[in-house]
Amino acid sequence: ADQLVFLEWVRHFGFLLGIADVVLLSLPREVDYPVIRTPKFRDIITIPISNKKYMLVMVVVFAWQFSLYCHNTFLQVYLMDTIGITYFLYCFIIFVYPFFFPFSMKFWQNRISKTSWLRALALALLIEAPLQLVYALIRPDLAPWLLAGMLLFIRLPQHFAGVGRNTIVANMQYINMPQVNRTCYTSFYQIVYNLGAAAGLLFGTVF
Known about the structure:
The protein is mainly alpha-helical and 207 residues long.
C-alpha cells in the first residue's frame, strides 16, 4: 500500500513537472525571421560565381579532389597487385590513422588560428607531397621488413598531415561564405567537390 501511495505521488510530481516545462517553453518570444526568397536553380551557379573570394576556395577544392582521385585508387591497386603488399599490412597502416587525432589535432588547431585555413592546408600538403615520391623507390624485390618500413615512413607522417588536411577540407565550403544565400553556396560546393572527383577518376583512368 505504501508503494502504491509513493508511486501515486511520483506520478503527480511528474505531471506538475510536465506542466512547468510547457509553461517555461512558452515564455520565450518567437524571433521574427526575415523573409528569404526561395533560390532558383540558376542561382546555385550564378550567385557563387559572382563571389571571387569564394571561387578561389572552390578552385582549391576542385584541385584537391582531382589530385586525390587521380591516383589514390590506382595506388592501392599498384601496391597490392604489382608490389605484392599484403591486404593485412595495407589495412593496418590505414587503421592507425584515427590514433593520430589526439596527438596532432591540437597542432593543426593552433596552425589554423595563427595563420589561416588555406595556409594550414598548404603546410599539410607540403608534408604529404614529397613523401609521395618515395613510392617510386618501392620495388617488388625488396625485403618484407624493408618494404613495411618504407610504407610506415611514408604513411605515418602523411597520417599526421592528413588530420589537418581532412579537417580543413571538411570546412572549406564555409570559408568566405556569406551569411546570405548559404543554400546556393553549399549546393555549388557539392557540385565542385564531385566534379573534381569525377575529373580525377577520368584522368587517372585514361592516362
